[in-house]
Automatic annotation (TrEMBL):
It is found in: Cytoplasm. Binds 1 pyridoxal phosphate per subunit. Catalyzes the reversible conversion of 3-phosphohydroxypyruvate to phosphoserine and of 3-hydroxy-2-oxo-4-phosphonooxybutanoate to phosphohydroxythreonine. Residues 4-350 form the Aminotransferase class V domain. Its main location: cytoplasm. This is Phosphoserine aminotransferase. Belongs to the class-V pyridoxal-phosphate-dependent aminotransferase family. SerC subfamily. It comes from [Actinobacillus] rossii. Coiled coil: none annotated.
Length: 362
């Protein structure tokens, strides 16, 4: 194999065209004779960049006018704390829907700032297959300041494809690992957040899309770096932002628009996932333990159910240029992350290797 395919769950692969564009501009951005990393974040050229990036993102993701877009630091973990500090001041209570590791981690952090109820929304059958058991919370949601869930659990590969029904309550979504893999109705959410390192750009910058009426309610003790009102009033720049990461996200937005937008990416992602899951379903050697209705389009987990074979699979795949297929340490097994930037040729190469490995080891 001459081409390397990177199946990392994050930081993940980025579009080749974007990296090539950044490479050509690295030493001479906007004909300034300097790198974008070397110019003032408050200067004319960088301010034009962030204005254009927001415009492109609004067009790409259909972000309504009554939502603010913030580019912050601290990753999704930072938002685990920022959200209760900003949104949990009226009733002092939130509902967290637990679908796996990251939603549970968000709830654990939030307990430092707000009273909360945590409800598991997944169940496992006698064969170990995981499914989402409930998405309608309209009967209880309005007693809370907000309801939080994770749309896609990166570790297990569980994706919640139906937006939870929370009545008139504020719905908050961690979309870190499936944001902009398809279009969503943003008006159904009070706040969406995502670490950039899956589909948007490199690690180091975090996207927050928040409805304007939810801004300005932060607790007095909220640090300014986490205060949405302070950040919105300062163009997400109360301190020096990660300018290179912001620049790369801006290039990704341009690239995605040039490719035809999210409808194109939804179709591509569905084709990649269907190809890989179809092979897994016909194989008696590999197992996927997620119910078909909740299988992630972004993170495909599988196992031989033999730790020694799993380790050999990862080692031999890596040697063949199929990188980062080792499953998360929490779960083990294998995981193929096939985000927006992964071409279908990568999935095809993976399946060919899987067939070869199965023929040799089964």
């Amino acid at each position: 194999m001459t081409q390397v395919f990177n199946f990392s769950a994050g930081p993940a692969m980025m579009p080749t065209a974007v990296l090539e564009k950044a490479q050509t501009e690295l030493l001479n951005w906007q004909n300034q004779g300097t790198s974008v990393m070397e110019v003032s974040h408050r200067g004319k050229y960088f301010m034009e960049l962030i204005t254009e990036a927001e415009k492109d993102l609004r067009q790409l993701f259909n972000v309504p006018d009554n939502y603010k877009i913030l580019f912050l630091q601290g990753g999704a973990r930072g938002q685990f704390a920022a959200i209760p500090m900003n949104l949990g001041g009226e009733k002092g209570k939130a509902l967290y829907l637990n679908s796996g590791h990251w939603s549970a981690t968000a709830a654990k952090e939030a307990r430092n700032f707000i009273e909360l109820d945590e409800v598991s929304i997944i169940e496992k059958d006698e064969n170990g297959v995981i499914s989402v058991s409930r998405t309608d919370f309209s009967d209880i949601a309005e007693q809370y300041d907000y309801v939080h869930y994770c749309t896609n659990e990166t570790i297990t590969g569980v994706q919640i494809k139906e937006i939870p029904n929370v009545g008139n309550a504020v719905l908050v979504a961690d979309m870190s690992s499936d944001i902009m893999s398809e279009q969503v109705d943003i008006s159904k959410f009070g706040l969406i957040y995502a670490g950039a390192q899956k589909n948007l750009g490199p690690a180091g910058i975090t996207l927050v899309i928040v409805r304007e009426d939810l801004i300005g309610k932060a607790r007095q003790a909220t640090p300014s770096i986490w205060n949405y009102e302070t950040q919105a009033n300062a163009d997400s720049m109360i301190n020096t932002p990660p300018t290179f990461a912001w620049y790369l996200c801006a290039l990704v937005f341009k690239h995605m628009l040039a490719q035809g937008g999210l409808d194109v990416y939804k179709k591509r992602n569905a084709e990649k996932a269907a190809l890989l899951y179809s092979y897994l379903d016909q194989s008696a050697f590999y197992r996927n333990y997620i119910a078909k209705a909740n299988r992630s389009v972004m993170n495909v987990t599988f196992s031989t159910d033999n730790d020694e074979l799993n380790a050999k699979f990862v080692a031999e795949a890596t040697a063949m240029g199929l990188q980062a297929l080792k499953g998360h340490k929490v779960l083990g097994g294998m995981r193929a992350s096939i985000y927006n930037a992964m071409p279908i040729e990568g999935v095809q190469a993976l399946i060919e290797f899987m067939k070869k490995f199965e023929a040799e080891k089964a």
